[in-house]
Amino acid sequence: MTQWKIREVRPDDLEAAARVERLCFPAAEAAGKEALRARIQAFPGSFFVAEADGAVVGMINGAVTDEPAIRDEMFADVSLHRPDGAYQSIFGLDVLPEYQHRGIASALMRHMIRDAKEKGRKGLILTCKERLIGFYESFGYRNLGRSRSEHGGAVWYDMLLELPAEVIPGEES
Ligand SMILES: CC(C)(COP(=O)(O)OP(=O)(O)OC[C@H]1O[C@@H](n2cnc3c(N)ncnc32)[C@H](O)[C@@H]1OP(=O)(O)O)[C@@H](O)C(=O)NCCC(=O)NCCS
Predict the structure, then answer these.
(1) Number of domains present in the structure of the chain
(2) 79 C-alpha vs ligand 1 centroid, how far in Å?
């Protein structure tokens, strides 16, 4: 079985992160290299990568905000990041197709939730497509309904996980 580890992003992960994003999202939704460079500079503390076989195979990242839902402007404008803000957002969670179905995305999400909890955030927010609502509900997120987001021309749902959660699902023992 492949072993992986999760760690904070480093500036030299940029090329690999851009590749993961390109291979996982449709072009209209993928963050480009410059957007990812800006995110790595602005909020490395909430940008984590999964490394396996000596390479970056997945990642999770997002700015921190005092707003309880993601606005499309946030994806492109890292100046909206508030390090001491209340809500950890998730801009992207992606794992290379050949490494999917092994629990890597779930481990990345649990890592982000634990980190947000340690930093005393009120909660985590994300937008997702309808087919992934159940996936995020399994971590304790609640579906708040259709989002105003028009990111990439798709239909999105606002999801909110309020902290402190009693336990992180999957880590009860
Ligand atoms: C979504 C994504 C991150 C999942 O990555 P992954 O590493 O395969 O996820 P995990 O192995 O941790 O978890 C998958 C498990 O979650 C559960 N799951 C998945 N979708 C689910 C749903 N809609 N409802 C309930 N549970 C779900 C299943 O148990 C699934 O197991 P399976 O893969 O054996 O069927 C990956 O498919 C991906 O990168 N997709 C493209 C980018 C994307 O859409 N990202 C999310 C939007 S930000």
Answers:
(1) 1
(2) 30
Residue 104 belongs to a domain: yes
Measuring from atom 1 of ligand 1, which residue has the nearest CA? Answer: 94
For the entire predicted model, the pTM comes to 0.94
Q: What secondary structure does DSSP assign to 33-81, as a single string?
A: HHHHHHHHHH-GGGEEEEEETTEEEEEEE--EESSSS--HHHHH-GGG-
Residue with CA closest to ligand 1 atom 19: 135
CATH number at residue 37: 3.40.630.30
State pLDDT tens for residues 30-82.
999 999 999 999 999 999 999 999 999 999 999 999 999 999 999 999 999 99
**How many angstroms separate the alpha carbon of residue 135 from the centre of ligand 1?**
6
Q: Which atom of ligand 1 is nearest to the CA of 106?
A: 12
